[in-house]
Amino acid sequence: MSGRRHQVLDAAIEVLGSGGLRRLTYQAVDRAAAVPPGTTSNHFRTRTALLDGVVAHLENLDREDWDAGAVPTPATREELARGLAEMVRHLLGPARSRTAARYALLLEGTARPAVQEPLARGQDSLARWGAEMLRRLGSPAPEEHCRTLMALLDGMMLHQLSLERPAFDPEPGIRTVLAAMLPERPPAPPGGAKPGGDRPVPR
Question: 152 and 173 share a domain?
Answer without folding.
Answer: yes
